[in-house]
Amino acid sequence: MKVIKFVFAVSFIFLLSCKQDIKTKNTEKLQLVMNDFFDAVQTKNFDKIKNLTDTDFLLYGHGKILNADGLIKLIKGFPDIKTGHELGNFNIDIGDNIANMTYINHYIIYDSVQITKDFLESAD
Predict the structure, then answer these.
(1) For the domain that residue 10 is a member of, what is the CATH number?
(2) Which of 18, 78, 82, 87 is at 20 to 30 A from 37, Cα to Cα?
(3) Are 103 and 87 in contact (CB under 8 A)?
(4) Entry's InterPro entries (predicted)?
């Protein structure tokens, strides 16, 4: 359905050294940010979407390249149906001032019939 492309601000990745415990904490933070982002999209919490993204945010999906405002406009056009997601299988590479992750987004649409899809997505 979509491949999400983020640029995480340096503020999420203040690595003072290459110690594993720092990388582990930042890895956990990045996973929380991704879960928070998808929760905000699912609940149509537009303020939270804006707080979780920066000016470099770009999303590639639905045949378009969207910034946060474009994503919000797209979400406003979605029908009111119950959806869910579960992120897993994270593979995160943390550098000095950027992080890259791939993950599986297990997406569920609860309509007259439950539809589930797994998407391989990435974020930078």
Answers:
(1) 3.10.450
(2) 18
(3) yes
(4) NTF2-like_dom_sf (IPR032710)
DSSP 44: T
> Number of folded domains in the chain?
1
Question: Is residue 30 within 8 Å of residue 92, measured between CB atoms?
Answer: yes
In terms of residues, how long is the chain? Answer: 124
Residue with tokens 């994503």, as numbered in its chain:
71
- List the one residue out of 75, 23, 17 whose CA is nearest residue 44: 75
Domain around 94: 2-123
Please identify which residue in the block is written with the tokens 């359905």.
1
Rounded distance between C-alpha atoms, residue 42 and residue 121, angstroms? 17
Q: What is the pTM of this model?
A: 0.71
Return d(Cα 48, Cα 50) in angstroms, integer: 5
